[in-house]
Amino acid sequence: MDLLTTAEAADYLRLGERKLYELVAKNSIPCSKVTGKWLFPRNELDRWVLSGLARPDGMIAPEPPPIVGGSQDDLLEWSLRQAGSGLASLTEGTAGGVARLLRGEIAAAAIHFHGDAADPNVEAARAMPRLHDAVLIGFTRREQGLLLPPGNPRSLNSLADVLESGAKIAMRQVGAGAQMLLDVLVARAGASQRRLNRLEPPCLTGPELAAAIRTGRADCGIATRAAARAAGLKFVSLAWENFDLLMRQRTYFQPSIQALIRLMAEDSFTQRAAELTGYDTDPAGQVRFFH
What distances in angstroms separate CA 106 from CA 79, 99, 150, one per listed residue? Predict the structure, then answer.
């Protein structure tokens, strides 16, 4: 341990000794009193200085916290636990996760963009100027569709049926991948968003949307087959999508991420995906894009 005297610490921090003693008296600086003398660990002083670092927009922290943000997914949450990765989850939707990733607040974002591009996730990663060191790791392909009450009492078998019947549809928040998919499908049908009989406020996750349908607050909504199965709801398939993990290249080599990637190659991962239903694990662990 490199210990500095009061004079050395003052010189190291470019402060006067009087100011340093004021900070000591206020218990505002890391130090230790040994046989009547104040000593200052150099590495703790470095951390103290960095703790007050003001970062301009676009500057990221050296190491993001061990959190996977973005879209909610049952298989992903199981995998984070099963891999012993130490990664927590923070589910706020695809766009919310990307915003946190750009600010350095999470290690990776689970994303499923939708649009006119052949591969919307890859195109979105390529188009992010502040993510110049991006890497996109395949997790799975997922089946998205209409969630409906058991028995499908309103005989809704397509989005056209939803639009024509005026059925109440549970929505997701702006920026959620499922909401992007709904917007794309409505546009492709040549319909207006005003024709949707929306349940408000928006549901923040797929399971929350499923609960709205299960309790009768909505007639339908878009989420995954796995969410439908977990809630005991009927499911009408609308699309398959890429569900990927977006991160910075240096994060890819962190032990927590590597533990998750190793799990994706195990039989237990494929078996759990089959149990949850609505997953294709072929892309799992593949580097699908990098800058």
Answer: 17, 9, 38
Q: Which residues contact 188 (CB under 8 A, 6 or more apart)?
A: none
Structural domain contains residue 58: no
| Same domain membership, residue 128 and residue 201 | no
Whole-model pTM above 0.70?
A: yes
Predicted local distance difference test score (pLDDT) of residue 160: 96
Reading the block at residue 161, the tokens are: 């049926």
Question: Which band of pLDDT confidence, cut at 50, 70 and 90, is reported for residue 12?
Answer: very high
- Burial pattern 233-256, b for ≥16 Cβ within 10 A else e, equals bbbbebeebbbbbbbbeebbebeb
pLDDT in tens, 34-59: 999 999 999 889 888 877 767 676 66
CA distance 211 to 102: 32
Q: Which stretch of DSSP H or E encloses residue 158?
A: none
How many separate domains does the chain show? Answer: 3
Q: Is the pLDDT of residue 62 over 70?
A: no
Asked if 133 and 213 sit in the same domain, the reply is no
Domain CATH code at residue 220: 3.40.190.10
Range of the domain at 25: 3-51
